[in-house]
Amino acid sequence: MATNLQIAARKVSSINPARGEVLREFECASECEVQAAVERARAAQPAWAAIDVRTRIAVLREFQRRLLEKKSEIAEAITREAGKPVAEALTTEVLVVLDAARFLIENAYHLLRDEPLPHGSLATKLKRGQLVREPYGVVVIISPWNYPFSIPTTETLAALVAGNAVVLKPSEFTSMVALELQSLLRSAGVLRDVFQVLVGDGATGAALIHSKIDKLVFTGSVATGKRIAVAAAERLLPVVLELGGKDPMLVLDDADVDVASSAAVWGAFMNAGQTCLSVERCYVHRSLYEKFLSACVEKTNKLRVGNEFDPDTDVGPMIHERQLQIVELHVEDAVARGARLLAGGMRIRELGNNFYKPTVLADVTHEMRIMGEETFGPVLPVMAFDSDEEALRFANDSEFGLAASVWTRDNARGERLARQIHAGTVMVNDVVSCFGISEAPHGGVKSSGVGRTHGRFGLEEMVRLKYLDVDLMPGMKRVWWYGYGAAFARQMEGFLDFQFARGLGTRVRGALRSAGIMARKKL
Ligand code: NAD
After folding, report:
1. How far, in Å, from the CA of 222 to the mean position of ligand 1?
2. Exposed (0-12), middle (13-18) or buried (19+): which is 349, by Cβ within 10 Å?
3. 321 in active site
4. Which one of 141, 199, 345, 471 counts the least CB within 10 Å of its CB?
């Protein structure tokens, strides 16, 4: 029946976070468009997978060349839409992607190759085993706004080189950067339907999960991740979930205060604190506590907050009002419960709507929201500890487990502690940079997620593992087939002794008892 009720298409806007100016408006991909895109991807994928992997690697090489050529343009597009300083866009986004491409160019061929799987058991010696890696088919990537280029691109490159088609649903706040990625990939030789961007909001993402896809790689908040895990479980869709973090930094009594305080300040405030691997909790040995705090405050007060395109700017705006309100709430709660505010603690309204002053809080406790929930803003909360054991207890007292760092002049001591911290990554004497180490797996434990991206293990997430077994004696019936009887049972006992008994005598007797097992008459 015709109706004059018009169902308005949902829209999302790309907004410059510093000035609030609307850069572009998009209609969200509808459910029909989502399904059509997935069908196109499915139709295009077999031909892409059938190409020799070296040809796909050549496409990555071309992508890398073009990205290097357009590095400044891409960095500026990221800055315009996400608000981070251009220098940060170059280091934490463009550099990360160029190196992820380098890793895959150098390693994808041998990592994706069939792998012989020799058998140890005598019973299966006459078979040749192989591991075969097959692409899933259609891989969907749903990504956040905080690293709008490096997160979806590193995942996309791994999925593509493994022979998958990719449908990317970027964050509704950073659609334009995703479209830059699309044009780079197309110009490098990736066919239209092999990589598609579907602009939209959460509902577009949800429609994708309910469409006929083969794997989902999701990066975002724990709340959305849990919803996605439930939807994925209903249809047993394999998923990688890269979720939030509350990364602890442990500054031991022998740490270099100057170096560690610089790391804390950068680790807490880069990208205005909107980094999953940010230093979100800082624990300092009481003997260094006040000295460390003074160093952090001095360095924090020197940071230049401002226009993201000004080359002197250290910290730009936050992404939007909602994120800023969480920061305000956490800081207010901490101060109300007795934390000392040593720097910042307020908006900088004269710069624009979304600027928050880098903030240092001392004497925080685990009863405060700022030490339990992800803040995702420019705040460095610091707390003292008295022993390594206590620091460890504090570090592990969290629902999150993405990354952590230990600061000490004694690397062996740092490593000992690192092994006891519940996290996907622990760095000794560094923060955050693990994301840029293309060989290193990235991912968390506990509420921080499931599965890994980056490096060898990230590539493994993009393939189904098939075990291929070829029997080398096709004309022979297997020993364990029908035609059982008392004699066979005795022979089998002998065979088990022959293979697994500890004493030489028992093994020899077992060998004698099992003689004739091959010649046994089978059905
Ligand atoms: P978010 O969960 O709000 O959104 C992430 C993506 O999911 C967006 O594209 C969004 O449109 C989509 N989405 C929302 N609802 C959906 C639904 N029901 N079904 C399918 N898709 C849906 O997260 P955000 O605010 O964009 O990103 C910030 C969060 O991401 C932080 O918690 C941060 O720690 C986390 N993060 C984690 C990593 C990591 O590698 N572990 C990296 C970056 C960011």
Report:
1. 8
2. exposed
3. no
4. 471
Ligand 1 pocket, mutate which of 142, 425, 437 (most atoms under 8 A from CB): 142
Q: Which residue is listed with tokens 């999925």?
A: 159
Ligand 1 atom at shortest distance from the alpha carbon of 449: 41
Catalytic residue among 276, 282, 296, 434: 276
**Which token pair is 474?**
């096709």
Judge if 496 and 425 occupy the same domain.
Answer: no
Residue nearest to atom 14 of ligand 1 (CA): 202
**Same domain, yes or no: 45 and 60:** yes
* Residue ranges lining ligand 1, Cβ < 6 Å: 142-147, 151, 169, 171-172, 201-202, 205-206, 209, 219-221, 224, 227-228, 242-245, 276, 374, 376, 402, 444, 449
On whether both 219 and 300 belong to a single domain, the answer is no
| Statement to judge: residues 204 and 70 lie in one domain | yes
pLDDT at residue 2 in the model: 36
Does 302 share its domain with 260?
yes
pTM of the shown model? 0.96
For residue 369, the CA-to-ligand 1 centroid distance in Å is 21
Q: Distance, CA 241 to ligand 1 centroid (Å)? A: 10
Residue type, 444: G
Mean pLDDT of all residues belonging to the chain: 97
Check residue 271 and give left, alpha or beta (phi > 0: left; psi -120 to 50: alpha): left
- Domain extent, residue 517, equals 477-523
Confirm if 159 and 131 have CB atoms less than 8 A apart. Answer: no
The number of distinct structural domains making up the chain is 3
Ligand 1 atom index nearest CA of 221: 32
Calculate how far, in angstroms, residue 46's C-alpha sits from the geometric centre of ligand 1: 30
Structure token pair of residue 348: 């900088």
Q: Is residue 16 part of a domain?
A: no
Digit-coded pLDDT (tens) for 122-172: 999 999 999 999 999 999 999 999 999 999 999 999 999 999 999 999 999
Return the exposure string of 47-74: e unless at least 16 CB atoms fall within 10 Å of the residue's CB, then b: ebbeeebeebbebbebbbebbeebbeeb
pLDDT at 5 (0 to 100): 41
- CA distances (Å), origin 121, targets 124, 125, 145, 347: 6, 6, 51, 67
Nearest CA to ligand 1 atom 15: 202
The domain that contains 411 carries what CATH number? 3.40.309.10
pLDDT of residue 452: 98
Among 378, 319, 321, CA closest to 344: 378
Known catalytic membership, residue 28: no
**Residue at 143 is within a domain:** yes
Residue 448 belongs to some domain of the structure: no
Considering the domain architecture, whether residues 430 and 307 belong to the same structural domain is answered as yes
For 70, the 3-state DSSP assignment is coil
Report which ligand 1 atom has the smallest distance to the Cα of 142.
Answer: 9
